[in-house]
Amino acid sequence: GSPQPFTLSKGNHTLRLIAHTPTSRVGEVVVTNDPAWWPLEGFRGDNLPV
After folding, report:
1. Cα–Cα distances in Å, from 25 out to 8, 10, 29?
2. Which residues, other chains included, contact 20 with Cβ-Cβ below 8 Å and sequence gap of 6+?
3. β-strand 4-10 against 45-46: which pairing, if any?
4. In this structure, are residues 19 and 3 in contact, taking their beta carbons and an 8 Å threshold?
5. Rounded CA gap, 13 and 24, in Å?
6. What angle do CA 30, 32, 34 make, to 5 degrees?
């Protein structure tokens, strides 16, 4: 169905995942304030491969 937002917040950091399709579970990844908080470099941005 429609994209379902998933939000994980820790302190001032926010990680938002949006699943668009069953084959593309992560369509958008947004990390705010502290990019280093996201442990896997290269996974920032959108349209991630699965």
Report:
1. 16, 22, 11
2. 3, 27, 28
3. unpaired
4. yes
5. 24
6. 120
pTM for the model: 0.19
Q: What is the pLDDT of residues 1-50, one digit of tens each?
A: 445 555 666 666 666 665 555 555 554 555 445 555 555 544 455 554 54
Backbone torsions φ then ψ of 20, nearest 5 degrees: -100, -45
Rounded CA gap, 35 and 7, in Å? 16
∠ Cα 5 7 9 (to 5°): 170
CA distance linking residue 16 with residue 10, whole number of Å: 12
Quickly tell me which residue has 């950091």 as its tokens.
Answer: 13
